[in-house]
Design brief:
flat; 69% helix; mainly alpha; 2 strands
């Protein structure tokens, strides 16, 4: 649970942290669109280069950024095995029954892994560089949905709390002799049942306490609320807008003039 990067905020004063949250949401959508528009490695390398510059200007350690990829290693490994062994290509290296290892399958698996890694890292950078309150204000300002934005903000705030609570319950169960590491996969999954029940009870308790606190402060979600900090665009956001548009345009041109990888 400590390796989960999404939902965590890294407090540091940087160029990316000072950007408007509305622009960050726009940049994330543009970056994801560029990743899916790209049909060759050149397009993905352009996206990766832009993402590297974003990481450098955010002043977030590279190890912490790469930690976000560790959360999807199982999904990446599963997708890689599917593409490597079951992708029927023209240049076949080895085959046995329905299993087929081809050049096209290897290229497709590498393309999929790189695309998945870029998606995860870019999404994690949004929460690394934006506080839940700022992210809520940005969503509310764009879509004018206060209740949904508040729900997302509370959900993001709950992620670190649930991680800490999970670690606490796990350590308490280990102190009582629980074993979470030995045995086969089914035994290890079964061993986590004593953790899930206290974790669910703790989540309901936190939610109830939060609801009581909001009611005691006369919080009404449907009412128009004032803002302590007003959102405003700056020259940084304008510069980032140019970079985002250039990224999408460059990937589209590479798709047109270079074509697909396979």
């Amino acid at each position: 649970m400590k390796e989960v990067a999404f939902g965590q905020y890294y407090p540091v004063d940087s160029f990316v942290h000072r950007l408007d949250p509305r622009f960050k949401l726009f940049f994330l959508v543009a970056f994801i669109a560029a990743i899916f528009v790209a049909t060759n490695f050149y397009g993905l390398l352009v996206c990766a280069g832009v993402l590297v510059f974003v990481i450098l200007f955010s002043r977030i350690p590279a190890g912490k950024v790469l930690r976000a990829v560790r959360g999807v290693l199982f999904l990446a490994l599963f997708a890689t095995l599917i593409h490597v062994f079951f992708y029927a290509g023209e240049t076949v290296y080895w085959s046995y029954g329905i299993i087929c290892i081809s050049r096209e399958g290897l290229i497709s698996s590498a393309f999929l892994i790189l695309r998945l890694a870029l998606l995860v890292v870019c999404s994690s950078m949004l929460t690394y560089t934006t506080t839940p309150v700022a992210l809520t204000d940005g969503i509310e300002a764009i879509f004018h949905v206060h209740v949904i934005a508040r729900i997302m903000s509370i959900a993001l705030r709950m992620i670190p709390s649930l991680m800490e609570e999970t670690e606490r319950v796990k350590n308490a169960q280990k102190a009582r002799g629980a074993d979470f590491e030995s045995g086969n996969l089914f035994k290890r999954v079964k061993a986590f049942v004593p953790i899930l029940i206290p974790l669910l009870l703790s989540a309901f308790r936190i939610a109830e306490d939060l609801g009581d606190a909001m009611e005691s402060r006369c919080y009404v979600g449907g009412k128009k609320r004032t803002k302590y900090k007003k959102l405003c665009f700056s020259w940084r956001d304008l510069l980032g807008m140019v970079v985002a548009c250039a990224l999408v345009a460059g990937v589209v041109l590479l798709r047109i003039y270079v074509g697909a990888t396979l």
